[in-house]
Design a protein that fits this description.
The structure is a single chain. The chain is an alpha+beta fold and 82 residues long. It has one domain. Helix content is 37%, strand content 24%. A three-stranded mixed beta sheet has the order 1-3-2, covered by helices on one side. Strand 2 and strand 3 form a beta hairpin. The protein is globular. Bound molecules: zinc ion. The site of zinc ion has 4 residues, from helix 1 and helix 2.
């Protein structure tokens, strides 16, 4: 799939632990999104959107580890209504 802003994104669903909805990594200028195939269709779509959000936010270009970015983003999500 190619997004309007010209990024190459390869998306596949795969076996993952239940605690993980999705993951994203960058290799040779191509973004790979992995989605947990145990999620229902709707949750998979949400997980793809979430991972694309990481790409668009430039989370993969920072010096922070993916785990740190993940923690921060999910903290912000959990607290956005306060
Ligand atoms: Zn995330």
């Amino acid at each position: 799939m190619e997004l309007v802003f010209g990024l190459d994104v390869i998306c596949r669903s795969t076996d993952m632990p239940m605690a993980v909805k999705g993951a994203v990594k960058k290799s040779n200028g191509v973004y790979y999104i992995y989605i947990n195939n145990r999620l229902c269709e709707e949750e998979q779509a949400l997980a793809v959107a979430h991972e694309i959000d990481h790409i668009v936010s430039g989370d993969l270009e920072t010096d922070y580890s993916a785990a740190q970015v993940e923690k921060y983003n999910h903290y912000m999500e959990a607290n956005k209504n306060e």
